Amino acid sequence: MTSRKTTSAAIVQCSTSNHGTTTDVLALSQSDVAVLAETFRLLGDQSRLKILLQCMRGSVAVGDIAGSLDLSQSLVSHHLRLLRGARLVRGERQAKHIFYGIADQHVSQVLQDMAVHISEDRHDD
């Protein structure tokens, strides 16, 4: 198993330099920390995470998400309302349907980075 000792400064440098952001994650306000914790809590639900992964494929209708995940449309709509409130997805109305996709590149990048991270963990064992 590979040792993963990394200093806090290295973690902050890595997270800020890779994506071109200048936010100092160690200087977040209490309010920002609360929002971040709530965002991760939302991502902790498997159904919501699966919905986000479906939305990464492009704009998708609620019915299509429900069908592919074997969930009811009302449950998917409920999860999407929460995800939209956290600015993780965006909806675009086209006639009678709303199509959902990932809100922005940051959300997509977090999901991709974590997928790579868990894949690397499996290979290190």
TrEMBL record:
The keyword Disulfide bond belongs to this UniProt entry's keyword annotation: no
Annotated ranges, domain HTH arsR-type: 28-122
Molecular function (Gene Ontology), one example: DNA-binding transcription factor activity
Keyword annotations from UniProtKB, A to Z: DNA-binding, Transcription, Transcription regulation
Domain of life: Bacteria
Keyword DNA-binding: yes
InterPro entries: ArsR-like_HTH, HTH_ArsR_DNA-bd_dom, Metal_resp_trans_reg, WH-like_DNA-bd_sf, WH_DNA-bd_sf
Pfam families cross-referenced by the UniProt entry: HTH_5
Gene3D superfamilies the UniProt entry points to: Winged helix-like DNA-binding domain superfamily/Winged helix DNA-binding domain
Segments traversing the membrane: none
NCBIfam families: HTH_metalloreg
PANTHER family documented for this protein: ARSENICAL RESISTANCE OPERON REPRESSOR ARSR-RELATED (PTHR43132), HTH-TYPE TRANSCRIPTIONAL REPRESSOR CZRA (PTHR43132:SF6)
Descriptive protein name: Winged helix-turn-helix transcriptional regulator
Organism of derivation: Pseudomonas lactis
